[in-house]
Amino acid sequence: MDQIWIYEGQTLHSMEAEMGGVGWSTRTAVRDWHGPRLGLIYRPCCGSGPNSTASIHAHGGHDLAKLAGRTGANPAFDGGDERTAIQRRQNHRFSILLGAALVLIVASLVVIWRERSSQNTLANYRPSGIPANISTSTATLMSLSPIPHNLAPSFSLVDQFGKPVTLKSLRGRVVVLEFMDPHCTDICPIVSQEYIDAYHDLGKSASKAAFVAVNVNQYFNSPSDMLTFSDAHGLNSIPSWKFMTGGVTALQTVWKEYGVQVEAPNPKADIIHSSVVYFIGPNGKESYFAAPADDHTKSGAAFLPASQLAAWGNGIATIVRDMSK
């Protein structure tokens, strides 16, 4: 028995035209109709045209009694083809979802590949003007960059012992200048260790360098604050070490001259500040700029792997040697 789906909006006349006449023996499915199917009409293989006995099968809860009456059919329900159609639709949806998933996977792989390629490119990037004896990996770790050889901004402050210090008084040596908070428990202790490592790496050449820092904590700016920090972190073991401080106005002027940002809302709040290192030549002119960084444990403690600490110390020492020639 052959069948035709009846669709919403299809007239009985067009339906009968689809059914054909005598000798109708091949299955016909109306697939191009728009809208929900209303029912199925089954026709005997060897009927005698539109008036032959046929069975009308309701679909979607629609009443096909009138159609049944006009064709002389008895309504009945047959879900076989409907289940097949539903299964096909489900398979189609599954194919679409699977295809979309594959597209997302491929797109993700492309993004990962591009990101890794970009990281590799940055890792191999070397700014011009870096000393040849500084490896690219060390230059990248230090964010080392050459800067215009202008005279470094002058300052007049006092060190951790209360002795006056001017930048001009340090002429003749390579000045390694940092900005630190005497109450810092984050990156400042790490930079302190890098200074100590650099001092030891320099050996006999250490006399050619001056390791200095300027205070960034306006609430704790006495020489005794600088001395306490210096003792706690072993910085006073460096003969040339000077942790400089002064009045709030004098400090703020130095910060501004060297482009150091400081946020100090109140004495109890953490001081947020730029962590930078300037390398100033024996002639008082700036040569290089570096940016110390650190990592943090899950509990929030700052640290830097030993290998990176050593690389920083060696990098500072190498730059001092190069600049003091």
CATH-derived architecture of the largest domain: 3-Layer(aba) Sandwich
What does the oligomeric state look like here? single chain
Count of alpha/pi helices: 8
Cα Rg: 42 Å
List how many beta strands DSSP finds: 15
The name of the CATH topology of the largest domain is Glutaredoxin
- Shape category: elongated
> Which structural class should the secondary elements be placed in?
alpha+beta
Strand percentage, roughly?
A: 15-25%
- Biggest sheet statistics: 6 strands, mixed
Bin the helical content.
Answer: 25-40%
Strand order of the largest sheet: 4-13-12-7-8-9
How many structural domains can be distinguished in the coordinates?
2
List the uncertain runs: 1-78
The mean pLDDT is 78
Structure description:
- It is a single chain.
- The protein has a six-stranded mixed beta sheet. A three-stranded antiparallel beta sheet has the order 1-2-3, covered by helices on one side.
- Helix content is 37%, strand content 18%.
- The longest helix has 44 residues, at 80-123.
- The protein contains eight helices and 15 strands.
- The model is unreliable at 1-78 (pLDDT under 50).
- The chain has helices at residues 12-19, 65-71, 80-123, 136-142, 187-202, 223-232, 248-257, 306-323, and strands spanning 2-7, 37-43, 55-58, 145-146, 156-158, 164-166, 174-180, 209-215, 242-244, 262-263, 272-273, 277-280, 286-290, 295-296, 302-303.
- It starts with a strand and ends with a helix.
- It has two domains: 2-78, no CATH class; 136-323, Glutaredoxin.
- By secondary structure, the chain is an alpha+beta fold.
- Helix 4 (136-142) packs across helix 8 and helix 5 (187-202) packs across helix 8 (306-323).
